[in-house]
Specification:
The protein is of the alpha/beta class. The termini are close together. It has a 5-stranded parallel sheet, sandwiched between helices. It has a single domain, classed as Rossmann fold, CATH 3.40.50. It is globular and about 50 Å long.
Length: 201
């Protein structure tokens, strides 16, 4: 089984690319680190733990974590962000490692994709064979954050500043996909990537 981490900057299209690479293929399994964090935010034990750390104002009406309330706190204060990452990242890595082990033991998975936004920033220590970076220009990232996620310029800039520069991620990657154009263009690149000998043993 080949294990590949897919990373990149925020708003570069990582989830879309993962979907294109998996695309109903039963031999491809996916672990989404951001979705794992979403799940943690909805679990009562974790919601209570984070509320103890950061205050009950981050809770939604149903008792889960409200990301829209937590985001400006975390990205407005580097110490709070590091504390949040210190709490969440080990649990996400643990759950990812378990998912990889289950997929390998099943004998049915050819390619295991791990979508991990902060691969290089977090010291993600789950074993993998390859690293794929999805990249776009800073101008495109800013535009997508405004138009598609509704973030104001200040919050968007704090998030971008907290991440490793995209060209540094490109430098470290085994494979790079550039997502500056249309969705059909990304689909063509995904098709080429699926046929790459590293990912199609």
């Amino acid at each position: 089984m080949i294990t590949a981490c897919l990373t990149g900057g925020i708003a570069t299209g990582k989830t879309l690319l993962v979907g294109l690479l998996a695309d109903g293929d039963e031999e491809v399994a996916v672990f989404d680190c951001d979705a794992s964090v979403h799940l943690l935010f909805s679990e009562p034990v974790w919601a209570a733990r984070l509320a103890d750390e950061f205050g009950t104002e981050i809770l939604a009406a149903d008792g889960s974590i409200d990301r829209a309330r937590l985001r400006p706190l975390a990205f407005g204060n580097p110490m709070l962000r590091r504390r949040l990452e210190h709490l969440l990242h080990p649990e996400v890595r643990h759950r990812c490692a378990l998912a990889v082990a289950r997929a390998r033991a099943s004998g049915r998975v050819r390619l295991f994709l791990i979508e991990v936004p902060l691969l290089y920033e977090s010291g993600f220590d789950v074993a993998r064979d390859y690293e794929i970076v999805l990249a776009a220009s800073l101008a495109t990232q800013r535009d997508r954050l405004r138009r598609k996620r509704g973030l104001n310029d200040e919050v968007a800039e704090r998030i971008l500043t907290a991440q490793l520069p995209i060209l540094e991620k490109v430098r470290r990657a085994h494979l790079v996909v550039w997502n500056e154009g249309s969705i059909p263009c990304l689909k063509r690149q995904a098709s080429c990537l699926k046929r790459h000998p590293w990912l199609s043993p």
